[in-house]
């Protein structure tokens, strides 16, 4: 004999359906709020220490690039939009607080790099495509026309690399990863010819490292990882010879940290992680000695944050992720 299932009371069914609908509505509202937060932009005023909201971007995006143009506007390009990589770009006008769409990149890309050249154009290099392949391609944005055009390809496809404007106006691209693994190769782009030339290899293949132009024109590469092991090593690139030399090791391994050139010519390294645990530690590199010294710790552990040197010489560190997830906090190094 089959046991009959007890029938639910109509009012109880209605209550459960109403609860389910409310939960769905709350989930949708939460998702919408999350999307709106990712569209938001805000401004920091060093004179007051206060953040204020400004106009929202037209598109929700993450892992994009942001470049300050010579006209004072900010170009944002690419990134992840609704789980897909994007080729869209938009401009922020500080005088109005408004974002406007501009020309699309030729390729959708994320984990790419953007460099403002001495001629005012923006060079975008590498990155990852929607099909999860790394690009060797590069393209140029012209602020006077709002149009992107192709330039010559790098010799090697790469993403999560560094791209650094040298004092001679050329661009040094170093490291990163592609389908073949972690890269120790480097190459230089000449804006006057639009061509790439290979230069000396780093001693270590690395990605999510930092690259900083020192006051002597050389480039300091620090930290990073090979997707498994994080590094505390650092090396120096000399543009006059195209060679790399090892310099002093940091006191801690770190990846996805920030590096900021201070007004005294030293380099502040802050935060990052060991691929597992985020750090609040900081250290300073002295190019005159090639040595690192520990600096005061940040108030909060953070990784994948940003750091900006202010006109008063202080360093603003903001956002990133910590033990508790994504951070909205900011702090100053003086």
TrEMBL record:
Residues 54-186 form the Bulb-type lectin domain. SUPFAM superfamilies: Kelch motif. Coiled coil: none annotated. Gene3D superfamilies: Galactose oxidase/kelch, beta-propeller (2.130.10.80), Kelch-type beta propeller (2.120.10.80). Residues 1-10 have a biased composition (Low complexity). Pfam families: Kelch_KLHDC2_KLHL20_DRC7. Keywords: Kelch repeat, Repeat. Residues 1-41 are annotated as: Disordered. This is Bulb-type lectin domain-containing protein. It comes from Rotaria magnacalcarata.
